[in-house]
Amino acid sequence: MIDLSTSIAGVKLKNPTILSSGILGTSPELIKRAFENNAGAATIKSIGPKLRDGNNNPSVINFGHGLLNAVGLPGPGYKNMDVEFNELSKIKDPVIWSIYGSKIEDFVNITKYIIKYKPKIIELNISCPNKENGMLFSQDKKSAANVTRSVKEVAEKTIIIPKLSPNVANISEIAYACEKAGADAINAINTVQGMVINIDAKKPVLYYKKGGMSGPAIRPIAVRCVYDIYENVKIPIIGTGGITNGRDAIEMIQAGASAVGIGSAVYYHGINVFGNIVNEIKEWMQENSYNSIKEIIGIAHE
Amino acid sequence: MNNMEKEQKVHKKLTIKQIINENYKTKTFFFNEKIDIKPGQFIMLWLPAIDEKPFTLSYKKPAAVTVELKGNFTKELFKLKKGDNLFYRGPFGDGFTASAKKAVVVAGGMGLAGVSLLIENLKKSKVIFGAKQKRDLFFKNRFDMDICTDDGSIGYKGFATDKLRKLLKEEKYDIIYTCGPEIMMKKVFDIAEKYKIKCEASLERFMRCGIGICGSCACGDKLVCKDGPVFNSDNLRKMNDFGRYTRLKNGRKASLQEYHKGRS
Ligand SMILES: Cc1cc2nc3c(=O)[nH]c(=O)nc-3n(C[C@H](O)[C@H](O)[C@H](O)COP(=O)(O)O)c2cc1C
Ligand code: FES
Q1: Which CATH class is domain A6-301?
Q2: What's phi and psi for B85, nearest 5 deg?
Q3: A139 CB-near residues (< 8 Å, 6+ apart)
Q4: Which of A100, A88, A99 is nearest to A34 (CA)?
Q5: Measured between CB atoms, which of B10, B51, B212 is closest to A205?
Q6: Does B80 touch chain A (CB under 8 A)?
Q7: Hey, are the CB atoms on B250 and A51 less than 8 Å from each other?
Q8: Topology adopted by domain B103-261
Q9: Where in chain B do CATH 3.40.50.80 domains reside?
Q10: Measured in Å, how far apart are chain A's first and last C-alpha atoms?
Q11: Which residues of B are less than 8 Å from A53 in CB distance?
């Protein structure tokens, strides 16, 4: 019997695939649809302190080797979302509640507010490149640690996972600082900063001009980040970035991830992607005589 | 050109060939370029450094969009002249099934632009077009339509849905296609259910990616850009938000009444 289950700081996932934040997760119904389609966990679109429109379009495009987005964190703001929160709290499968803010207080206030809905896991999006100061807290060890510590203080028993940016020189040191500040796990990575210009229009394609790259183009960047972080921390890692099939997922797990974030692949393969990846992981494990995901985590380091 | 270069061209260029005034607030923009699209599918039209919005084509050869002056995007679009360029990506989404034998098309206001290619593809169809008043009409000479206006300034005085009910009492149809204000489409769907006729409705939601990942266009657990924009009766029956709630740019769920108030 092959055991595909894994766990993130004590929260059990039936398989290692996790719907990443900002992909589909705008409504509880879509989160449920991800679970119906075999996701092991699902992350909601990051929620923030205030009502925000986000950026004008184009805000998401396929540039040929991946996606580039500058959606700009639109959302109703946490105080306008009780109906959604209520629905989310009824879901039995592990839902990851992603939050963002531009001040430490924002993270703390949102955490205090949502905690009454008993989320199992809160993810701190400190790594969005598409909003003024969106990456503020992932740029250096001290800020990342401060926000993590402040949230942990009010989070009661909820698992806290900072999500880190690859747009830094020392991601593994930042991860280590988060661990010391009480993070229960790390998610790496958020998008990689980039730009695409349409040479006929002679203008950047995104309205926000710059954006965050995701999808196949960033996979080696994500694998490198996870590999480095694994060497530096003991807490589990969610490896995110460029995974579109089972082999990619296994690569990330071998680099040190306990579970894998799936974002852009939903565009490439539709929502069936979770089931497909799970089957492909299983096949590979069968062929290579592994019985449990846990046997593969980090084996590229040995 | 190799495949990689082809892929990297996110937006393709369009050149305006001709602009026609359809009525006091509506223009049709014809392009030099061909766009391979099925009735009901949409493109994302891009005005560089301004915005990008979904549109259906109202003509195929040559390609054209018919647009009502509404907000900032259309204001900027209306400033363009013959020979000017704009850009698009797509087509996206699933269109209408056009296999039906005997069809009724119920279009409300600008929804007529959304079913124009469909009407041209249908062999035998009846078209009901509902508008507020005479001055809102367009494509009057293009299609043979039963025109209804709220104030009776031309055609039948009353709603398109009243006309539809009358028609169904007299004759049997295989399918009803509808495009227009969602509250009207919901009524059309309810009538279709009552008469046990298949229905396909073309929905509209605020869109960002157009490719099924950002979730902006969610209607219940369906994505209008990817699972739609055309939905059939089996789907519509399960979509609790259909005819009731939409989603604003900021992601907040709002009733259709509130949404329409905010736009007019
Ligand atoms: C359209 C889009 C929206 C995103 N929104 C968020 C977000 O709100 N919060 C967040 O933490 N990450 C967001 N991300 C980043 C993804 O969660 C993920 O980290 C990144 O896309 C890399 O994974 P992938 O290559 O599998 O897509 C977004 C990504 C995309 C493509
Ligand atoms: S517009 Fe992004 S999912 Fe439909």
Answers
A1: alpha beta
A2: -110, 150
A3: A165, A168
A4: A88
A5: B10
A6: no
A7: yes
A8: Rossmann fold (3.40.50)
A9: 103-261
A10: 25
A11: 249-250
Residue with tokens 């099924």: B212
Q: What is the C-alpha separation between A2 and A18, in angstroms, rounded?
A: 19
The CA dihedral of B223, A101, A94, A26, to the nearest 10 degrees, is -10
Residue B109 alpha carbon to ligand 2 centre in Å = 24
Instruction: Choose the closest CB to B249 out of A24, A54, A270.
Output: A54
- CA A173 from chain center: how many Å? 19
Q: Closest Cα to atom 18, ligand 1: which residue?
A: A190
pLDDT per residue of chain B (264 residues) written in tens, 0 to 9: 344 444 456 899 999 999 999 999 999 999 999 999 999 999 999 999 999 999 999 999 899 999 999 999 999 999 999 999 999 999 999 999 977 789 999 999 999 999 999 999 998 889 999 999 999 999 999 999 999 999 999 999 999 999 999 999 999 999 999 999 999 999 999 999 999 999 999 999 999 999 999 999 999 999 999 999 999 999 999 999 999 888 889 888 888 888 876 554
One-letter amino acid at A170 equals N
Cβ contact, residue pair A24, B223, below 8 Å: yes
Q: Do the Cβ atoms of A205 and B213 come within 8 Å?
A: no
* C-alpha to C-alpha distance for B247 and B264, rounded to whole angstroms: 17
Cα separation, B247 vs B245, whole angstroms: 7
Question: Quick one: B175 exposed, middle or buried, by C-beta within 10 A (0-12, 13-18, 19+)?
Answer: buried
| Assigned token pair, A122 | 């809160």
Instruction: Domain ranges for chain A, please list them.
Output: 6-301
Domain with CATH 2.40.30.10 in chain B: 3-92
Assign A181 to helix, strand or coil: coil
Task: Give the nearest partner residue to A26 out of B52, B89, B251, using CB atoms.
Answer: B251
Centroid of ligand 2 to alpha carbon of B161 (angstroms): 30
Rounded to the nearest angstrom, the minimum Cα separation between A299 and chain B is 32
State in words which class domain B3-92 has: mainly beta
A contacts of B216 (beta carbons < 8 Å): 26, 74
A128 carries an active-site annotation: yes
* ipTM confidence score: 0.92
CB-based contact A278:A17 (threshold 8 Å) = yes
CA A61 to centroid of ligand 2, rounded, Å:
11
From the candidates A18, A70, A128, A175, give the one annotated as an active-site residue: A128
